[in-house]
Amino acid sequence: MTLRHLPPAFDTLPIAKAAIVDSIVFCTVVPEDDSGSIVGSSIVDQSRAVFAKLGEVLEECGSSLERVAHVTVYLTDIADRGGMTEVWREVFADTLPARATIGVASLAHPDMKIEITAVAHVSTPRPADARIQ
């Protein structure tokens, strides 16, 4: 078994953006921009930010949104499921991964409405990439 990590974007949290085990990548993504600020105030805006960030992280790991097998969506208001699903259908129009949607009392930042975890297949591992350890 080979285990590699994609280091965090910020030094504020002691977690990896992704972990790659053999040909499977595990990611956790929140609606933050490159400075660590929360993006958007609506569930639609935050969902778009989260899925765009997921695509970027997967690309860094040698995968893509088309290779996502499972997503767990955490929502601070389960009534936001409709707005998130609207974006979900845009992102996963042709390749629908399995999904669990869970309502939670809060997330790590009070302005976050959504957080996701995803599992995907790595099509082209990048062991030579200095960011992946």
- Total strand segments: 6
Mean pLDDT: 88
Number of discrete helical segments: 2
**N- and C-termini, Cα separation:** 14 Å
Largest sheet: 6 strands, mixed
Major sheet strand order: 1-2-3-6-4-5
Query: What letter string, H or E per element, gives the SSE order?
Result: EEEHEHEE
| Low-confidence sequence ranges | none
Secondary-structure-based class equals alpha+beta
Strand content: 25-35%
Given the C-alpha coordinates, what overall shape results? globular
> Any idea what the radius of gyration is?
14 Å
Kindly describe this structure.
The chain is of the alpha+beta class and 133 residues long. It is built from 2 helices and 6 strands. The protein has helices at 43-60, 81-91, and strands at 3-6, 18-21, 24-29, 68-75, 98-103, 114-121. Strands 1-2-3-6-4-5 form a 6-stranded mixed sheet, covered by helices on one side. The radius of gyration is 14 Å and the shape is globular. The two termini are 14 Å apart. The model has no long low-confidence stretch (mean pLDDT 88).
In brief:
This protein is α+β, with helices and mostly antiparallel strands.
What's the layout of helices and strands?
Blueprint (H helix, E strand, L loop, with lengths): L2 E4 L11 E4 L2 E6 L13 H18 L7 E8 L5 H11 L6 E6 L10 E8 L12
Parallel strand pairs: 4-5
Antiparallel strand pairs: 1-2, 2-3, 3-6, 4-6
Helix pairs in contact: 1-2
Structure keywords:
6 strands, 133 residues, single chain, six-stranded mixed beta sheet, alpha+beta, 27% strand
